[in-house]
Amino acid sequence: MNKQYWSRRIADIEPYIPGEQPKDKKYVKLNTNENPYPPSPRVAEAVAKVAASDLRLYPDPDCAALKKTLAEFYGLRPEQVFVGNGSDEVLAFSFLAFTDEDTPAVFPDITYSFYPVYGEFFGTNCRIVPVREDFTIPLEQLMKNDGTVVLTNPNAPTGIGLSLDEVEQILRANPDHAVIVDEAYIDFGGESAVKLIDRYENLLVIQTFSKSRSLAGMRAGFALGNESLIAALNAVKNSVNSYTLDRMALAAAQAAVEDRAYFYDTCSRIAKTRETTTGKLRELGFFVLPSQANFVFASHERVPARILFRRLREEGVLVRYFDKPRIDDFLRITIGTDAEMEILTATLKRILEEQR
Q1: CA angle 51, 245, 20 (to 5 degrees)
Q2: Residue 277 is part of which domain span?
Q3: Long-range contacts of 64-67 (CB under 8 A, 24+ apart)
Q4: Residues 213 and 342 both lie in one domain
Q5: CA angle, 207 then 212 then 213, to 5°
Q6: Under a CB-based contact definition with an 8 Å cutoff, are residues 311 and 351 in contact?
Q7: The pTM is what?
C-alpha cells in the first residue's frame, strides 16, 4: 500500500481491531460483549418521539438533559458529568487530556487493547505493568505516582475485578495524577468507584451505554468526576467536535437511564446466566477465571483455544480469540441468553468429543 501521503502519526501504527461483525450468515454471537437483551421499551418510545423535522437542527452540544439525568442517577451534579460518542471516544479524550510525553499512561499488559493504540497515536509514553500469573493486577506497581493510571475494572478480557478498597489504595498513592477507572462492565457484578468521586479529585470514572443498557448501536458513553477533570474533557471535545451525540442517541440514552427497574433486572439476569455457564464450562474441562463482567475467559485443559475458536465458528457460534502472548489459549465468551448459552455448551461438548 502506498503511504506517501500518510502522516508519520499513522504510518506505522497498529490500529485497534474490533470484534467481528459477520455478514455471511446468522451466528450465535458471543464475541463482542453486546447485551443479549433489547434496550428498555422506553428507549424505542423516546427515539420515536424525535421528530424527523428536528434532525435538520444540531443537537444540544452540552447534552444538558442527559447530564442532568445521569447526575441524578449517580448522586452527582451535572458539572461532574461528561458525555461522548461511546466510551471509546471518552477514553480517547481522556488520553489527550491527562497524558502526554511527560505524563505517561500506566496500565496492565493484559487489559483493553485500545489503550496502547491511544498511547501510540497521541504520542503518549506508556508504562505497561505485567499482570501476575493468575491475571490479577499487582497493585504495588500502580502506586509509584509517576503517571496517569488507567484501569479497566472489571478487567478485560479477564473479567477479574478490583475491590473498592484496592481502587482507593491506587487513588491515594497517585495524588499528582489522574486515575482513570474504565467501568464498562461494572454493572454485572463489580463495585463502582463513583461513590469515591467527592473524596478524590483525581478520580475519573468512565462508563458506557453499550453493555448494561443495551445501546451498543447508539454509541453513547460518559465520564464522572471532579469538575476540573470534566472541564479538561470539555476542552478536548470542543477542540475536536462540539456535537458528539446526535439527537436520537441523546433521547435513547436518557430513556435508558430513567428506566431503573429494567436496567437492574437485565444486569441480574446476565449475572445469573454467567454463573450457570461458568459451572457448565468447568464440567466440560475448562478453567474459567472468576468474572464480574458480562463475559467469561476460559481455557480448556486439553484442546487449544485456536482450534475451539475455529470449530465454534464453523458451527455458527462466534466467540473472541486473542492471538497474543499469555492469553492465546483462552477464549473470551460473551454471556448471551440462557438459550444461546445452551447452544454454546452443547456445541462445545460435541467439538470436545470429536477431538478425543
Answers
A1: 110
A2: 19-38+261-354
A3: 65/250, 65/254, 66/222, 66/245, 66/250, 66/253, 66/254, 66/257
A4: no
A5: 95
A6: yes
A7: 0.95
Taking a C-beta distance cutoff of 8 angstroms, is the pair 224, 74 a contact? yes
Number of domains in the chain: 2
pLDDT digits (tens, 9 = 90+) for 197-237: 999 999 999 999 999 999 999 999 999 999 999 999 999 99
- Grid coordinates representing 229 are 477533570
Q: What is d(CA 41, CA 44) in angstroms, rounded to the nearest whole number?
A: 6
In this prediction, residue 158 carries a pLDDT of 98
Contact between 32 and 334 (Cβ < 8 Å): yes
Q: Give the separation between CA 200 and CA 197, rounded to whole angstroms.
A: 5
Task: Give the pLDDT of residue 62.
Answer: 96
> Are the CB atoms for 207 and 217 separated by under 8 Å?
no
229 and 343 within one domain: no
Do residues 80 and 159 both lie within one domain?
yes
pLDDT tens-place string over residues 64-121? 999 999 999 999 999 999 999 999 999 999 999 999 999 999 999 999 999 999 999 9
In a domain, 5, yes or no: no
Residue that finishes a domain, picked among 232, 258, 284:
258
Those residues with Cβ within 8 angstroms of residue 347's Cβ, 6 or more apart along the chain or in another chain: 312, 315, 317
